[in-house]
Design a protein that fits this description.
Length: about 375
Amino acid sequence: MEIFRKQLSVVAFRFSASARRTVVVRRKGPGFLMKVAPPVTTIRSILSISSSSPISAAAEMTGIALESEAEMPVALKSTTAIAANVNGHSNGPASNGTHYSRRAPLPHQTNGHHTNSPSVNGYGHHSKVFDNGESPSSNGKWQPFLIGVAGGTASGKTSVCSKIMNKLGQNDLEHHERRVVTISADSFYRVLDDAERTRAHAGEFNFDHPDALDYELILNTMHTLLAGEKASIPVYDFVTHSRLPTEYINVYPADVVLFEGILVFYFPELRNLFKLKLFVDMDADTRLARRVTRDLKERGRELKSVLNQYTNFVKPAFEEFCLPTKKYADVIIPRGAENEVAINLIVQHIKEHLLPLASENGSPRRSMHELEAALPVEVNGR
Ligand SMILES: Nc1ncnc2c1ncn2[C@@H]1O[C@H](COP(=O)(O)OP(=O)(O)O)[C@@H](O)[C@H]1O
Ligand SMILES: Nc1ccn([C@@H]2O[C@H](COP(=O)(O)O)[C@@H](O)[C@H]2O)c(=O)n1
């Protein structure tokens, strides 16, 4: 059993779709790691997982031992800010015009075994088989692993994505080096005509109906990213209910794309692009309270209009269009971003998809070692 020594004081766990057991390792003071006997608990007490999920299947077989410690709270950002932050640059004419077209290797890929040598698809390490044994795409070419994150308004979708990014150490990387990006469906509200905009300012436009979104642009963007190309997406302004006219966000090719929004599971074609579907679950009272606070503070709204909009549109549309899509989720995350255990499980799952697998002996374990050398979360297992 090999123990990995890392700087962060985080309890971590090892969970693999192929693993049959889990070992928990806890840091006890600086430089000392202690193996603790894993209390076996059922994964369903931590998060809900639909029976069709690969995680579920493994968990059913496994009996997962988990422990968690409180972490520093993450900075919670507005959805648009997250999209801009994660994806890099608001590279409109006013920006410095820096464009990145190719990802840099991860630190562990420069140590000999996984150098950045070009492959048939031009993405170097991307031309690998995933560690769950599946091809990364149906035709054998590399494709990003698309993850959908749905949930009601203010349920914590953005915060969950932000935590995932933080735990994967992506926010500390240069934008062009990131292997995971988050996109928000908020970037894709369609352009309104004058009459619609007037209604929007009066809180009388239904932004929670699927027709409020520019679905064509969403699909085009997803297909662009799946083709491994850079996509440019609008920057949305919730104060004016419109796209910023001269700005856009460049989304660079990444291994994992998180796409979050209230209706991302509503459209069948979009839904079917997701390899993993997460639903962030939070009670309606908490969501309303958070939405009021956020909309007054960040979206330039008046209390009366927020409450009217919520009663007339947000709540009914949630029940009609969003809630029924919960059944499509592979993983349901109760309590949103507070649910460290669920988020850690998802992070672990993503890490396994980030791994370049084709190591010399083809062992996923060796790839895990490499990833742990590159990512700031302690993981041990086997
Ligand atoms: N655990 C939490 N505790 C307190 N406030 C939270 C928590 N999670 C999210 N929030 C706040 O609630 C609001 C909505 O969260 P966010 O993650 O943006 O949700 P969504 O993306 O689903 O709309 C934000 O203002 C955020 O700061
Ligand atoms: N101009 C707009 C556009 C959208 N909304 C509301 O945003 C909500 C979705 O964003 P979350 O971050 O809360 O998931 C949705 O419920 C719309 O009502 C808006 O108020 N104004």
